[in-house]
Amino acid sequence: MRVLTTPEEAFADVVDFDYPVHRVEVPDQDGGALNMAYVTAGPADGPVALLLHGEPSWSFLYRKALPVLAEAGIRVVAPDLVGFGRSDKPVNRSDHSYARHVEWVRSLVFDVLGLREVTMVGQDWGGLIGLRLLAENPDGFLGAVAANTGMPTGDRDMPEVWWRFRRTVEQAENLDVGRLVESGCARPMPPEVRAAYDAPFPDESYKAGPRVMPTLVPTTPDDPATEANRAAWEVLARSDVPLLTAFSDSDPITGPMGPVLRRKVPGATGQPHTTLENAGHFLQEDAGTELGRVVAEFVSRLCG
Predict the structure, then answer these.
(1) Could you report the per-residue pLDDT of 234-271, keeping only the tens digit for each?
(2) How far is the C-alpha of 39 from the C-alpha of 43, rounded, in Å?
(3) CA Rg, the chain, in Å?
(4) Could you count the other beta carbons within 10 Å of the beta carbon of residue 270?
(5) Distance between CA 131 and CA 228 in Å, rounded?
(6) Could you tell me where the beta strands, DSSP code E, fall in 82-214?
C-alpha cells in the first residue's frame, strides 16, 4: 500500500488548535502498517470521549468542543481518520473501504490505546464508523452521541443534495476541501479556518480519502457494506447502551436520521435529544461550544 504523509510544516499556520500530536501504528490490513494521528485533552484519568470527525474534515473540526470537555474533567481523544489530517493517506482509492476504516479506528481505540468505557461522538463519517464500532464492540462503550450522522444500508435512496455533493467530489478537477466544509456550515468561515481544512492536502495526490469516502456510503441493497450495516442495526435495535442524538436544525442530508435512531435504538429511550440551532451539517463549526456542553453533561450523567 503506497501512502503519503502530509509534512508537519503544512500545519504551521493552523489556528486555535495547539494540542500535542500523537502518532501510532495500526495494521493496514495489507501486510503493513499505517500511522494514525490523534490529539488529546483533559485529565489522563478522566472518563473518555472519543471524537470522530467526518468527510472531508479532520480533528481540527472539534477544536471548539475540546476545551469545554477538558474543563469538565473528560479525557478527550480526537483521531484523524486514515486519509485525513495528520494520519497516513493511502494514495489508491481502492485501498479504502468502509470495513477497513472501521477496523483502523477499532484497532487504534481498543488495541493500541486500550481505551475502555468510551463515549463515542460521531458526526458524518465519524458516526458511520462509530455506530458500527458500537454495534460490533458494545462492551467497550459507556455511551454514544450521534451528531448529524446515520448508518445507511442502501435500502433507501440518499437525498438529492447528497448525490450532488458526491458528484462534486468525484468530478471536481481540483477538490477544494475548505470550500466543501464551508458549504456545509450555516455561515461563512474566516479565511484562516478554511485554510486549516485545506492544510492536510498540499496537492491532489493527497486527496484519495476525501475523493473516495462518498462512494463508500451504501446506496444499493447489494453494496459491499450493506450486510455489515444491517447486522449492526440488528444489534443496535437490542442495545441498551445510552445513545444521545445531537442534530443541527439545518442539515438536509442527515436530519431525518435523528428520529430513526431515537425510534430504533432502545438506548436512546429516556435520553434527551438536542437540536443545535443556526447550525449546518458541520455543527462543530457552527455550534461547537454548545456541542461540547451537551456531550459533557451526557458523560457526567453516565458517570453519575
Answers:
(1) 999 999 999 999 999 999 889 999 999 999 999 999 89
(2) 13
(3) 18
(4) 7
(5) 11
(6) 89-90, 118-123, 141-147
Q: Which of 37, 47, 44, 25 is nearest to 107 (CA)?
A: 25
Whose cell is 493511502? That residue is 90
Residues 92-104: tens digit of each pLDDT: 999 999 999 999 9
What per-residue confidence (pLDDT) applies to 272?
86
Amino acid at 200: P
Catalytic residue annotation: 124, 251, 281
End-to-end CA distance of the chain: 45
Task: Kindly state the cell numbers that stand for 42.
Answer: 483533559
**Mean pLDDT, residues 19-46:** 96
The residue with cell 436512546 is 268
Type and span of the H or E element at 201: none
In three-state secondary structure terms, 231 is helix
Per the structure block, which three cell numbers stand in for 150? Answer: 446515520
Long-range contacts of 190-199 (CB under 8 A, 24+ apart): 192/13, 192/15, 193/15, 193/285, 195/13, 195/14, 196/13, 196/14, 196/15, 196/17, 196/60, 197/56, 197/57, 197/58, 197/60, 199/6, 199/10, 199/11, 199/13, 199/14
Distance of CA 200 to the CA centre of its chain: 16
| DSSP tag of 91 | S
H/E element holding 212? helix 208-216
In degrees, rounded to 5, the angle at the alpha carbon of residue 27 between the alpha carbons of residues 36 and 58 is 25
